[in-house]
């Protein structure tokens, strides 16, 4: 039997490891992005939601200046000192934890006179599936330390701290969609994010009211945003904005596409076109879901996938097959979700048909000789909070 972690089990693991009860347990969720891909670092619009899969952080204070982290998923604990925090010294996964403390200091939190902590992490957010397992760790640690050290930081400030941890300590040049979804999610709601305006508004999704379920299809093709295509896409967007004479692609709309076609080389044009049209699709999806309900957003999801497959070129055969099969099986809409180059697809399906659609995707993967996918249903869930 697989042990699914919880706040209680994480507190017990803390006690087994450190010989005392923790001061508290906090948790933060992974996320699914409903629509709006690679728009966040272009100052754009995004529409993700937090999911029930979470990372728990049990924390207890220490008398000295050391930080110790254990995780059930990792064989070795990691340690750092509040007196010598530098991203160069963070090893592997511990950068997600110590990076948050480093980022707090970078953004003006004084570490002077503070004592260290012991921490136990547990998570059921799948790693490398494009569901923000990394943001879930960062946000759980950030919200825990905000309480434990009585910092009084706002959620907006925590978003920027966690993004800085990801960019400066982990080394992934991401935007802040994942951290925003994890910190601002609400049960039953999507989070409509306007990165430029610094807003994150809850929008009811009504999946259950409309007898729909959201299926995640983890292709198990692993991706890594600290290296590879993600940074290359970001650079194309920056180059495209510079060539068009604007600060960011958010300054462009669909009316600018003819000029972009004349100005940019073919590849940069297609990257820019994806971002411009994706921003428009996010705005439309938020309107349509409120006016006509979630059954009416299917075409927008499908168009988003086509744009990522053909123009932004971040899909892969497994993601395309997952989307095509789900649609053939009658899904209302389907698209890849997250940074791309692997990870997961989502499909909005009639409640009760999730198993059938999942089985069809599994069969199609087997027929193509792909690794068996992992398919599960997610629900829009609560953002980061204190559990115990
Ligand atoms: C990853 C990044 F972390 C996000 O910031 C976002 O850019 C996403 O890819 C693509 O939309 O999840």
TrEMBL record:
The GHMP kinase N-terminal domain extends over 96-185
Task: Report the NCBIfam families cross-referenced here.
Answer: gal_kin
Q: Where is the GHMP kinase C-terminal domain?
A: 295-366
In terms of superkingdom, the source organism counts as Bacteria
Enzyme Commission identifier(s): 2.7.1.6
Q: What is this protein called?
A: Galactokinase
For this UniProt entry, the molecular function terms from Gene Ontology, in alphabetical order, are: ATP binding; galactokinase activity; metal ion binding
Query: Domain Galactokinase N-terminal, which positions?
Result: 13-60
Choose one Gene Ontology CC annotation of this protein and give it: cytosol
Q: Can you supply a Gene Ontology BP term from the record? A: galactose metabolic process
Q: What keywords are annotated for this sequence in UniProt?
A: ATP-binding, Carbohydrate metabolism, Cytoplasm, Galactose metabolism, Kinase, Magnesium, Metal-binding, Nucleotide-binding, Transferase
Family, according to the entry, reads as follows: Belongs to the GHMP kinase family. GalK subfamily.
By its UniProt entry, which PROSITE patterns does this protein fall under?
GALACTOKINASE (PS00106), GHMP_KINASES_ATP (PS00627)
